[in-house]
Amino acid sequence: AQTVTQSQPEMSVQEAETVTLSCTYDTSESDYYLFWYKQPPSRQMILVIRQEAYKQQNATENRFSVNFQKAAKSFSLKISDSQLGDAAMYFCAYRSPYSGNTPLVFGKGTRLSVIA
Amino acid sequence: NAGVTQTPKFRILKIGQSMTLQCTQDMNHNYMYWYRQDPGMGLKLIYYSVGAGITDKGEVPNGYNVSRSTTEDFPLRLELAAPSQTSVYFCASTEGRAEAFFGQGTRLTVV
Known about the structure:
The complex is a heterodimer of chains A (about 120) and B (about 110). Chain A has about 120 residues and is mainly beta. Chain A is about 0% helix and about 50% strand. Chain A has strands at about 5, 10-15, 20, 25, 35-40, 45-50, 60, 65-70, 75-80, 90-95, 105, 110-115. In chain A, strands 2, 5, 6, 10, 11 and 12 form a six-stranded mixed β-sheet that branches. Chain A starts with a strand and ends with a strand. Chain B has no helices and eleven strands. In chain B, strands 2, 4, 5, 6, 9, 10 and 11 form a seven-stranded mixed β-sheet that branches. In chain B, a hairpin with a 2-residue loop joins β5 and β6 (about 55). The model of chain B has no long low-confidence stretch (mean pLDDT about 95). The chains are: A mainly beta (about 120), B mainly beta (about 110). The interface of A and B includes residues 50 and 105 of A.
């Protein structure tokens, strides 16, 4: 079974600075999807960014970018120019494209604080 | 565009009571999931479905049941509620290569 590990329970960053959240995963599959979700205090799960394993280019969405290292099974999230609104729990998630496997697996999350 | 709709948003149950958490999606997604999130933790999969009439257990299925009679609806049934089932419950759906879309969650307290 696939597993997702987020080794940083909590992180903090100064406003306008850059922070990187770590995520590693374990799988024997060659094709899969990886996601970062943000969960603010409202509890809503918000998609931040996604990466498809067959694409070598790292995904980027405005201030958010990933460093996808397929061989190392690593998928870190970089937040540039951090803003107060970025404070939230961040979850890394793995999804298998094969219906016989557990479809979406989450890490335990990293709580990000942004200091003004 | 409603997306994924969960009801209720909050509920307090007494030990031993039963209830059904409703989940409906209007995106014609085949894949639907139920997760629970305990305080300060990640999401754990309870049950999932790959299409109408097909369901399967996730990581923590004990104490729950599901059904999938239509593509749109995926209700989660709690029988004989226990304090250990106090949690926030999320329903989600997805299709193809898309990301999962989540409902707003149900905060359940069992006392």
